[in-house]
Write a structure and sequence with these properties.
Blueprint: E1 3-7, H1 16-31, E2 35-38, H2 44-55, E3 60-65, E4 80-84, H3 87-97, E5 101-103, H4 108-122, E6 130-133, H5 140-151, H6 157-160, E7 163-166, H7 169-177
Parallel strand pairs: 1-2, 1-5, 2-3, 3-4, 5-6, 6-7
Helix pairs in contact: 1-2
Length: 193
């Protein structure tokens, strides 16, 4: 794995534990010589994880729509900052250059990014692992919702197994190393006459 995209909040959250784990993830990526691909901001958990990778001697690629350069305060110390025209182009570019995806805690934007990339995996548009770094039990309700989706048969079990979760950066990165994507989703079950 050469690069991992991290989706996360442009704020720090209420507890210092979120920043601590963002720093730990950044250090782990740098130690394993995995480039960070992220949203390009200098604020919140986004800036924290980027700074941690950089301080540990790692490589960071930011992808930021031009209209957010001032709102999210573009990070100007990155290895590379790619400016794009739209949020759609941002996600597409991140998906193109990343070999896997991790969601740290964040708000609706983080969820939207994670769900889109996860859905693309279900549809076979990529075969890259998607993980939730479940810091401070932040993602417990979402993990329960995925369980409910599978129980109610709105999600096949093989896709439920794609929801990789761990409470530590090392744990989620180990799962990424051992990840095998399931077969592509299809609705064809038998030939109709």
């Amino acid at each position: 794995m050469k690069s991992i995209a991290v989706f996360c909040g442009s704020s720090d959250g209420v507890s210092t534990i979120y920043r601590e784990h963002a720093i730990a993830l950044g250090k782990a990526l740098a130690e394993q010589e995995i480039s960070l691909v992220y949203g390009g901001a200098s604020v919140g958990l986004m800036g924290t994880v980027a700074d941690a990778v950089l301080h540990a001697g790692g490589h960071v690629i930011g992808v930021l729509p031009h209209f957010l350069q001032n709102r999210e305060i573009a990070h100007h110390s990155l290895s590379e900052l790619i400016i794009v025209d739209s949020m759609h182009e941002r996600k597409s570019k991140m998906a193109e250059i990343a070999d896997g995806f991790i969601a740290l805690p964040g708000g609706p934007g983080t969820m939207e990014e994670y769900f889109e990339i996860f859905t693309w995996a279900q549809l076979g548009l990529h075969e890259k692992p998607c993980g939730l770094l479940n810091i401070n039990h932040y993602y417990d309700p979402l993990i329960s919702l995925f369980d409910r989706m599978a129980e109610e048969q709105f999600m096949q079990e093989k896709y439920r197994a794609m929801v990789l979760t761990d409470t530590t950066p090392q744990g989620i990165l180990r799962q990424f190393t051992n990840y095998t994507p399931p077969a592509v989703k299809t609705y064809i079950t038998s030939k109709r006459t």
